Amino acid sequence: MHWFDDWALTLAVFIPLVGLAAVLFIPRAHEQAIKTTALVASLATLAVGVGILADFNYSQGGKLQFIVDKSWIPLIKARYHMGVDGISLPLLILSMLMVVLCIIYSWNHFPEPHNPKAFLALILLLAVGMNGTFVAQDLILFFVFFEIVLLPMFFMIGVWGGPNRQYAAIKFFLFTLFGSALMLVSFLAIFFLSKHQTFQMPQLAQFGGSGIASGTQALVFGGLFLGFAIKVPMFPFHTWLPDAHTEAPTVGSVLLAAILLKLGAYGFIRIALPILPAAARAWAPWIGLLAVIAIIYGALCCLAQRDMKRLIAFSSVSHMGFVMLGIATLTSFGINAAVFGMVAHGLITGLLFFVAGSVQERYKTREMNRLGGLLTQAPKLGWILGFTVMASLGLPGLAGFWGEFPAILSAYNPAKLTQGLFNGDQLLTFRVYLVVAAIGTVLAAGYLLWMLQRVAFGAVKAEFENVHIHDVHVSEWIAWVPLLLLIVALGIYPNLIFHITHGAVSNVSKVFGG
Amino acid sequence: MQLNEFLILAAFLFCTGAYGVLARRNGVLVLMSIELMLNAVNINLVAFSAFTKNVSGQIFALFIITIAAAEVGVGLAIVLLIYRNLHSPDLDEVDQLKG
Amino acid sequence: MLENAWIIPTLPAVAFVAIVFFGKRSPGKGAFVGIAAVGASFVASCVAAGQWIQRVDNATGKSEGLAAFTKGVVSAGGAHAVQPVTESITWWQNGSIKFGVGTFVDGLTVMMVVVVTLISLLVQIYSTAYMRGDRRYTWYFAALSLFTASMLTLVVASNTIQLLVGWELVGVCSFMLIGHWWEEPANSRAAIKAFLTTRTGDIGLMIGIIILFFTVGSFGIGATNLYATSGHAQHAFLLAAAVCLLVAIIGKSGQFPLHTWLPDAMAGPTPVSALIHAATMVVAGVFLGARLYPVFFNGFSIGHGGVNAMALVGGVTIIIGAALAFVQTDIKKVLAYSTISQLGYMVMALGVGAWSAAVFHLFTHAFFKALLFLGAGSVSHAAGHSFDMREMGGLRKKMPITFWTFVIGSLALAGIFPLAGFWSKDEILVNAGKNGYTAFLVVGLIGAFLTAAYMTRVVYLTFFGEYRGHEHPHESERAITIPLVILGALSVGAGLVNAAPLGLEKIKDWVQPQVAFPHLNNAAFDYPKAILSVSIALAAIVIAGYYWLRRDELRAFRGLTERNALARSGYQFLVNKYYLDYLYEDIIVDGIRGAVARASYWVNQHVIDGVVNGLGSGSTRIARYTYDVIDQRVVDGAANGIALETDRAGAEVRGFQSGHVQRYALVLFGGVGLLSLALFLINIH
Amino acid sequence: MNPHVDFHAFAPEIVLTVTIVAVLIADLFTDDSKLPARIAALGVLGSLVPVLTLAVDGQTRSLFGGAFVVDPFSLVLTGFFLVAGYVTLLLSFDYIGEGDYYQGEFYVLLLTSLLGMIVISSARDLISIFVALETITIPTFVLAGWRKHDTKSNEASLKYFLIGVLSSAVMLYGMSLVFGLANSTVLVDIHKYASGHTPALFAVAVFLTLVGFAFKVSAVPFHFWAPDTYEGAPTPVTAFLSVASKAGGFVALLTIVRLGFFPSGNSWQPILWVLAAASMTLGNLAALRQTNIVRMLAYSSIAQGGFILVPLAVAGDVRGNAAWQAVVIYILIYGAMNLGAFAAVIAAARRTRSAEISRLAGFGRTNPAIAVMFSVFLFSLAGIPPLAGWFAKFVMFRAVFDANTTVAVVLGVIAAVNSVIAFFYYSGVVRRLWFDEPAAGVELSSPRLPVGLSAAMGLMTAVILVVGVYPQFFARLGEIAFQRG
Fold this sequence. Notes:
The structure holds four protein chains of four kinds.
Chain A: H1 2-25, H2 31-55, E1 65-73, E2 78-84, H3 88-106, H4 116-135, H5 139-148, H6 150-160, H7 165-193, H8 201-207, H9 214-231, H10 240-247, H11 250-275, H12 277-303, H13 308-329, H14 332-363, H15 374-377, H16 379-392, H17 399-410, H18 426-455, H19 474-492, H20 495-509
Antiparallel strand pairs in A: 1-2
Helix pairs in contact in A: 1-2, 1-4, 2-3, 2-4, 3-4, 3-11, 3-14, 3-19, 4-5, 4-6, 4-11, 5-7, 6-7, 7-9, 7-10, 8-11, 9-11, 9-12, 10-11, 10-13, 11-13, 11-14, 12-13, 12-18, 13-14, 13-17, 13-18, 14-16, 14-17, 14-19, 14-20, 16-18, 17-19
Chain C: H1 7-22, H2 31-59, E1 85-94, E2 97-105, H3 107-130, H4 137-156, H5 160-178, H6 185-216, H7 221-229, H8 235-252, H9 261-264, H10 270-278, H11 283-291, H12 293-299, H13 309-326, H14 331-351, H15 355-382, H16 400-414, H17 420-434, H18 438-463, H19 478-493, H20 506-511, H21 527-549, H22 560-563, H23 565-575, H24 580-649, H25 660-682
Antiparallel strand pairs in C: 1-2
Chain D: H1 7-29, H2 35-57, E1 61-63, E2 68-70, H3 72-98, H4 103-120, H5 126-144, H6 151-182, H7 187-195, H8 200-216, H9 225-232, H10 235-261, H11 265-288, H12 293-314, H13 322-352, H14 363-366, H15 368-382, H16 389-403, H17 406-434, H18 451-469, H19 472-481
Antiparallel strand pairs in D: 1-2
């Protein structure tokens, strides 16, 4: 298996690219061949992921494994350096899995205008970027992968989106472009400020920002913060998200929610915290503040929605608030919870968007006022919605809980920070956050249950009484069952994730004494 | 004669040429004004060359004279072309492209 | 079985999965699977109980329990104390610290598992008849199984996280079951209300657990209790945790002021109500209080007399619950308020240091409250699915079994000697008095009076007089009556478990923890007080009975609410449930959903997004300006301006308004000239 | 003085000159309209051979007292100009062939201009730089007016000519002053002079000299000719102007600054700073408002020119060669993407018969292949990874942060803001291509796409993708260019 250790990550990142090339060379008329090729490519990628899972040394989860470190752009000292550790692994696998499921879901659900070739090609390109971001260990490589995802998503929203798609697509792109420009600038600053002049994350993390004046560090961290916060998205940089989600085609929303949002939070954990720990200490109370604002604010906005997808989109803002709160505590509890929260949110919100897409496909509307009685017309779909809602509101025993509760828990006792917000008492600051976040869980239950009530419960509205509503299709089942199973499995036995992450997270948090 | 006197002459010629370029409506006159400016440069070069005993200034001037000839040739061709198409050598009337 | 207590919750959980996936094709459409699982669970619970009793009885002089008590918890109750049995496996980890999931079995646990599985078993049997023909019959049994499993998980939890898991699952199951008939918007509204209200309380649980974790350093229940009793506990943190947990209890156990969901929860099927009120949902709060009692005891400094929050909440709830029970016309709602009131007794008992009394009351209450609900269900099942007492009456003859069991339940609830309720309620009152909480003793007595009175009203309205409905009532079938009879028997006999005058104090012996527990002195049986309370109850029955029997003749009272403004407003106050629902639903909930949410969204769309769009349109505007004005006009305009200036200077330049090319040239020269000058000046030093 | 002439060093120029003569002769003596084109293409490729042999040889050759130097820098750029010229030829074949114009002269002029470019990459003396610059420019005056019956083309030519000649005059005036002060036309000597204490007049002389280059690279405020000329000239010529000719200006600018004026940072850094900031900002903002694709690309290339100027403007504070490398790498990448973009414009215009952006609505549905490549070029110009443009921007920012002075960082911020603004109009075209429904009433004629055009687009797409993923290709070239031979 030695060759596998060396090649696994390269394969994981570039098999989709090969698939993409293959898809491009198949004439558009051969739809079946295109679909099969794309599916095979994504499955092969997933198989590599399974291989990585099997071969991963879990007792050394804190160490980078499957390292590839080859020359890439010597001129700027950027290297083709990739590796996985316990933080990357779950997200990498999640991304591989979601791509497969999305392709399966699309099988008979290609959005209009009907063009499976382009659609699948874009999904595969997305896969390249997503997988690459999670394994890159070089800042420039990370940046490139981080940006690769923009183009396919831009086209996905812009071509296959809803009526307001152009606005949403451009907004999405500009926001993230703006963020990543600042991020790149920060990377360069890190490069030149650190005495080693390197883009290698492990070295930079070891270096830990020593020798950089704290003011400069805070400034550079600010750049990283904006870049990542926009992607997360954190309040108040979130406004691209509802539009993008609302307009995007189902699969686009799913990938956006499940994977793309994780890139930002992952960036915080992987890059911002380890490389600039002193600045992280200074920024943490503010990040925490924005996180709890997002929790409450996102929830309140949810309550005002009539559009199902838009509601779910705002719920992402709220849920990512918990993730960010966990990160802001700089403790191993918090960061573990954040990684878990990312995976859980990926599975759950991904599924929610799937279901919302299927509802829209059947009823041709997402207006919750017009919907109702889904449980009567399509009971299975209704139950899946109900299940996902329960998972999303953080019901213990399902995956969502393990991202939420430990994050709240961690806010009780954050790592030693530079200062707090209220009269400088960091403990008080974060304990206030804790209470606010806990209140957020009630609001979450509120908006999700109200959505469930309006969509699934009650009687069927007159306009749809005589419409034939097909219950869950085969392709939908295949796409959803893995998610359902994972949500339950992770909820019942959370150590599935925690035992992978804890080592790597300890590496991050030990700098902060947590 | 001092070097400065040549330089002032050259500057004066250059400005005169520039004024001609700006003020003349007739394309041919504009071309002649340009010629004036280039010759101002030549005076400069030759003057420097003479005062510093460095021959490359004069070589430079020779090159400029040659190239100026070519430029004016092209310029005249363009003005002619415009005259043929617009039946006027007036540069005022050349303003289709804008915005 | 004590080591393998995980089997007890697992059986119904497996049944849940089995019913969901195979229920429709299995015999009894899933009902049999559920009954079999919970039955097996019940057996296992009984075995566990037996083993525990044996263990306690053997414990004198032996210390074999010590080895089983892990996680560094050492005995605090002397060498001979019986240790709980804990088992644990790694569940999740953080850094190098591993957190377990497992079982914590002691007397309280075994008592609870027996009660929960028994009630659940009876309810499921009852449901086979009651729910027959329901369109989601199979799903109903699946949900009941999950409900039971969740409650059992909570009960056997070895740590607070697991307890939280069970707690939330119980909540969601009650959501599903209350909203079982979700076609009616009212039902799903009630379900959501129940869920949200209890979840509001759960904030307290969550925060309480977190405070305890960071104070104690462990989620373990044993460790937490040991810490709380250790003497070096930080009182401030315990107090904070106790307050938070009390909020959780208030939410879950329907205590004032978060009790309003409980009556609405009657929207669910009646057997579910029985389960919720007797065994699974609402008693979780009281169980929490009992489980982590040292935290409350030391946090609230219970046992030092005076008033503490816990006792106060319980006491207030007793009265307000009982008072509301008077004005209900729906039989289930009366019972619901009665539950609220009875739970108030338990919470108050905990608050006044009467731990074993509280647990004892939980135990007995489970039986008679389940009995009453199932009885009410039986009535409505027979009388056209109505719970409105105005449409009942005179059912005494038509449904004798239901009638007699219901009367037993009512008497037990009213605390009439020698039924179960008497013993437990009496113990609460005695201990309240003994521990110096005289005020709460009085409250308890008033409560007893009210309880007896409103139950008399219910019994009268339902079973006496003439039948006022339009159906043909008849006795229910055996699947319904057998549970009633069993529960009736238990309502009579369960009190003997801890009948002090008879020398039976098994709750104290078997159930009360012997390690990591505050030192409590249980009061001896007090005859005067017992007689007093029974007399009060009897008096209430007599007075109420007299009022209802002779109502027509008591003109002074008839129409009192119409004539007397004070009485009317009092009545209105009660009918409107102290306006709490109005406060919660119309002001808080609608406020958040409506005004606050809409305002936030408005801010989002107009302020935050506005900034973004403003930036966008702003830069477009800048672009337009740059292009139209700067590039196309200022450049040109400057040219024109300069041209004008030059124009004045010399007449020759009149024809200067040449074509664009020359304007460009002008700018070129102008720029060059100016910049040269500037550079010259800069570099001149 | 009888200098030994190293003919190997001159070989690319010689091959190209021979080709020019051959094209002239072929045009005179045959009626085969395709022959001149073929000879031109072969000649350009043939000129690449000596470039390669010189590269293999690896020796630095200095001729005419240092006025003409063959070193890695000149070889890299000679190679670039020849390839760019070849691609321009590919674009031109059918465009020129289908119009009713003289073909032979077209190729002669194009190749002559190209000759000027490869000379300029070796020129190390004010005179040779001037001569080469004029050799580049004068043929393009004619080329811009190639469609001689089209008044727009006439106008483009006239404007280009007048402004070009004027800026030449200003530049020459500056050069004459430089000569007077430094007493030499060779850059090495000027470098020595600039190292000492220089009078204020030197700054003015430097500035006047730079004006000529600013015109060539169409830096704001010397850019006015560009949009008009670009719009009026035949599109392949526009492509040539915006890439090769502009690059020629940059090469000359780079040479003269690096080897000549460098020590006197005060005299050139502020100028370049202002030019860079103004070009980026004005170019981008003006591009936002364009409805004509060629005009938009004109403003875009003004803005891109601004980006290329950024490393130059901060070069004084950058360690080692990073700034120069950034310029060369940017030029190489810019050449590929801009040529590609113009190729796509030509291809699209063959279908839509218009250069209006609005006419491109829904083009992606009807012509996916062209539209995909078009999008690749545009996004690359916008600097989106994994397309080559990101690397160009990256090295530019890298130079800024390497310099790490306040003015540099301010310029970097301006550049960052501008790269976000730029995305607006590039994506605007892409949105038209893909997101819009084909407009009603637009009939898309679809004649066969010429092979040359498809080849050019395919080649540029490949370059952009490969360099985007593995930028070391061009990074290495940038590195080599400044290695001491």
